[in-house]
Amino acid sequence: MSFRAVTLVLLLSGLVCLAAPRQVAADYLGGVTFSHPAPSYLPNGETLFINIDYKIDDPAGGYVYARPYTLDSPTPGYGASAGSFCTGTGTTTQFFFFFGGENIVTHVRIYVRDGDTDEIELEMFVPVRYVFAPHGVFNLQMNHNQYDRLPYGENIEIEFDYVTDDPAGCKIYARPFTNGSMTPDYSASGSADLPPSGSYGQHFSFSGDADVTDIRFQIVALDNTTLLYEFFVPFDIHWAEVGIYDVDLDWPDGSSIHNEQNLISSFTFAHEESGGMRVWMAGTTGGNIAPGSSWEPSVLIPPGGVMMSRYSRVSFGEANVDGLQYWVKDIDDNLIMEFIVPVDYHWAPHAVQNPVFSPAAPAIMSNGEHLEMAFDYVTSHGDNVWIYARPAYDNVPMYGINSSGSSAYSPPSGSGNFWLSFLDDEHLASQMRFQMVNTDQSEILLEHFYDGFWAWGTSNYVTAVPEQVPTIATSLGPCFPNPFNPTTTIPVFVARDSHVRLAVYDMRGRLVRTLQDGIMVAGNHAFTLRGNGLASGAYICRLETIDGVQTQRIMLVK
Questions:
Q1: Of 223, 240, 257, which residue constitutes the final position of a domain?
Q2: Separation CA 160–CA 534 (nearest Å)
Q3: pLDDT by residue (tens digit) across 481-504?
Q4: Pick from 457, 387, 460: which is nearest to 425 by CA?
């Protein structure tokens, strides 16, 4: 299967630890990408490749490393590449793998050592979730997307690579689950007798309405009774009488969009109504059509399946669009189906779009190192505008920056650039705020936040620990996605059969959800937290076990 590097953009600083013990010549480490998406369930011996952008101005150079960590300790039993000698600016590749056992990697430690003194100059811990075990199912490829509405009988097909340490081979099954229980009334493929490694596929479908939240994978021995390995992959997909699926949007999530610009949704529309059906799409805010919205009209579409598109926009004013509503009516104007797909767009009379950052997030920079950025803009202002960027943390702008200032940008559209840095102290940013103002700065025309992760000279350092085998305990993994809307997955590793309580509290300490309170069997588990009925804002996920209490801050953005 093809190599696909997945960029991990860090949005929550509580999951990231960094270090810069002294002012250094190594100017940045950033743009980290991985050969397998997180989370992944990999077999021992499978290599995880990590690409790292760097800038090292010291002529003596430095050595760049990537190493697996479990919580705050090195994960035992790994093999890895030697440090990459780097100087100047470029990209290097590191890798690691595991020899045996079962290991959960919660962070990848990325750092550079000075070429002369062997001191650690820059360091960051990137949150991930990789499980390495004697068995693995990985490189998953689905033929349909999350949030799709598939017509009755349409298969979701899953292709994957696999490895088992059972020399006789195995069988592999993928089955639909809904909120922790197997989804009833499905049709699915069986499994052939498989050799110990290779590539394979599974599929399942429904002949009636179904809402699936997870896919369970099981590797079993050839006797079809001995379970060798099991894990769950969150995947939100649905079956209905009418299909709207393989949805593609022409603006990336989080975009700033001008009132005169359309959002175009391309998809497959399938139905069997002889008189034809109509379909529309429009943006929503809080479950209702966003104020100022307009959308493409629909003619009657004959039965069958057809690739098509629909556009919509907020034509005037400002609106934060947190969903896209699709709805279908028959020839008699009866509503047949409607649903909302979560998105994050901001429409306004002005826009700053398509930002490109160097170094790309996640990144740690020495104080004084510039974060460069380029962007496009559109404005309805009748005169020149200025555009500024400022780092922010949880929507709160940060001050004390050194920056390039703004050129005068002429209407109606064009491209621009900006740079900024900090000269001293420790600074941690989870967003970049763009502001567009008139030339006398008396009016803020636009304010928009783009998510990312950058740090300068930060001393939020995880104290070095001896290279020893840590005690494996029940652990709370990084929630993903985070921030989230409408759902997030909470991974929990249970070290041994024991009582586990997993609950979610608001920032005033009030209980808002209890996800688990009882005996759990040892192994990897995943819980889904749904944002229905919860207000936007921060919450605390709390795991209570015989090994102690662990918490994690999560953010719901509607």
A1: 240
A2: 36
A3: 888 888 888 888 887 777 888 988
A4: 457
